[in-house]
């Protein structure tokens, strides 16, 4: 089965006649001494899709650590303190403290496990569902507009290129001893090809929906 690089090569060759003049007039991106051109390209994407959006005031007021836990609970509900500790790479005591603050602010709820009352599971509250849901809807609306503005052949190339970039990043992290959890076929809340809703928490893009300070 051809990999993403092979698919991109085939597409590039198929487009060669149409893009001949454009290719000859363009120059190869130059890397600076401290950062390859990939860094600027990624920043441009995040700036256009995420950074410049005005965040919801309720989420913008949260410290980043609390926001990370809130998003993890929203996209991966019914998990334990230990589960969130592993997902966020922090101690269980840190998760407990963050959860207490989010409970007091009304974003999440603690629920006892139905089989073991000693085990506590976290869920977003109705208020938390509403607020995060609004942010998620805005994110999806932006992505939909961008996606719909692409021609079909551009959509294919875009997804193949992003998938290849993701694969390369995963390989680098694994080689450095920092492997990621397996990526599910569908993001949490979406359905995979079998129609089953994905439950695995995956650190979705909108963990970055709050404004980056001092950019």
Structure report:
The protein has one domain (38-179, 203-215): Arc Repressor Mutant, subunit A (Orthogonal Bundle). The chain has helices at 4-14, 20-25, 37-51, 57-60, 64-75, 81-88, 92-104, 126-148, 152-175, and strands spanning 79-80, 108-112, 120-124. The chain is 54% helix and 6% strand. The longest helix has 24 residues, at 152-175. Helix 5 packs across helix 7 (92-104). With 215 residues, the chain is mostly helical. It has nine helices and three strands. The radius of gyration is 21 Å and the shape is globular. The protein has a three-stranded antiparallel sheet.
Key structural traits:
215 residues; mainly alpha; three-stranded antiparallel beta sheet; 9 helices; 6% strand
Question: What's this model, at a glance?
Answer:
By secondary structure, the chain is mainly alpha-helical. It is built from nine helices and three strands; from the N terminus they run H-H-H-H-H-E-H-H-E-E-H-H. The C terminus is likely disordered.
């Amino acid at each position: 089965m051809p990999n993403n690089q092979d698919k991109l090569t085939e597409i590039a060759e198929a487009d060669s006649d149409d893009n001949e003049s454009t290719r000859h007039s363009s120059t190869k991106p130059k890397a600076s001494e401290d950062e390859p051109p990939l860094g600027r390209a990624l920043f441009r994407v995040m700036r256009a899709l995420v950074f410049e959006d005005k965040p919801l005031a309720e989420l913008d007021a949260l410290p980043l650590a609390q926001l990370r836990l809130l998003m993890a609970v929203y996209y991966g509900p019914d998990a334990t303190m230990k589960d969130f500790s592993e997902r966020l790479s922090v101690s269980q005591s840190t998760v407990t403290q963050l959860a207490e603050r989010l409970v007091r602010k009304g974003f999440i709820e603690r629920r006892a496990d139905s089989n073991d009352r000693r085990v506590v599971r976290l869920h977003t509250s109705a208020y938390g569902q509403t607020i995060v849901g609004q942010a998620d809807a805005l994110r999806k609306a932006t992505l939909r507009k961008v996606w719909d503005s692409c021609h079909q052949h551009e959509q294919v190339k875009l997804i193949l290129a992003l998938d290849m970039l993701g694969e390369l990043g995963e390989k680098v992290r694994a080689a450095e001893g920092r492997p990621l959890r397996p990526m599910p076929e569908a993001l949490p809340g979406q359905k995979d090809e079998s129609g089953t809703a994905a439950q695995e928490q995956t650190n979705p893009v909108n963990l970055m929906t709050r404004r980056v300070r001092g950019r």
